[in-house]
Design brief:
The chain is mainly alpha-helical. The chain has a domain of 145 residues: Lysozyme, CATH 1.10.530. Helices cover 39% and strands 5% of the residues. Strand 3 and strand 4 form a beta hairpin. Helix 2 packs across helix 3, helix 3 crosses helix 8 and helix 6 packs across helix 7.
């Protein structure tokens, strides 16, 4: 278990919490163990959280459960872009390799294929969508430009992430793992909401839908 370091001179938004150890959440996420006198920053901005994930620096991401969150605004769900069926073993293999819930990884892939379709024309959500202009690609809709240092750490080039399934899924799995490690009491809704919007301070409809997909395993035909 990696030791944490003190971060001197942090901005006010990156408050600290000392001598805290999480017992883990239902997905097995945890804060890294801390020694006496060590501190870990609380980071609640999108930019700060992105830096923590990219450079794998210790942090706590605060996010509350929003009981009124609804996924009704997500639009039409279509499963004819679903790429999990017949290839679900790969998702389980990658999830176990990284150390995350395989059903969470599959659920994210399912919702991104069913609602996002960002590498296909998405007329019901964006009538101006052009597949040649897209910056994120299925199955996990990873935006290479935002996560290039993470891709480099994993040994992937832009072409790998944009055009090959396993690197795309592996990179997303590492991202999900690092989010999970930074949430005090991780849940499917919290992790998925942060995957959807890293600046979230409470769970979103996206996270609620992922929870439903996760619990009902909708990718199993």
């Amino acid at each position: 278990m990696r030791k944490l370091h003190t971060f001197p001179g942090l901005p006010e938004e990156q408050r600290t919490e000392s001598d805290r150890t999480s017992n883990g959440g239902p997905l097995g996420g945890r804060l890294q163990e801390q020694s006496a006198g060590r501190q870990v920053p609380i980071i609640n901005t999108e930019a700060g959280r992105r830096q923590s994930i990219i450079y794998n620096t210790p942090a706590i991401f605060e996010i509350a459960h929003e009981p009124r969150a609804s996924y009704s605004h997500l639009g039409i769900e279509v499963d004819f872009f679903d790429e999990i069926y017949g290839g679900d073993f790969m998702y389980y293999e990658v999830a176990h390799e990284v150390g995350i819930d395989p059903n969470l990884l599959a659920s994210i892939a399912y919702i991104e294929a069913s609602y996002g379709c960002r590498d296909h024309t998405d007329l019901w959500n964006d009538p101006w969508n052009n597949p040649w202009w897209n910056s994120s690609f299925r199955p996990m809709n990873i935006h290479y430009g935002q996560w290039e240092p993470l891709a480099s750490e994993l040994g992937y080039l832009k072409d790998d992430v944009d055009n090959f399934v396993r690197p795309n899924v592996h990179m997303a799995a590492v991202l999900l793992k690092r989010i999970e490690e930074r949430v005090r009491t991780p849940s499917v809704e919290k992790i998925a909401s942060l995957y959807h919007f890293l600046g979230a301070d409470k769970t979103m409809g996206y996270g609620e839908r992922v929870k439903y997909i996760h619990d009902h395993k909708l990718w199993i035909k």
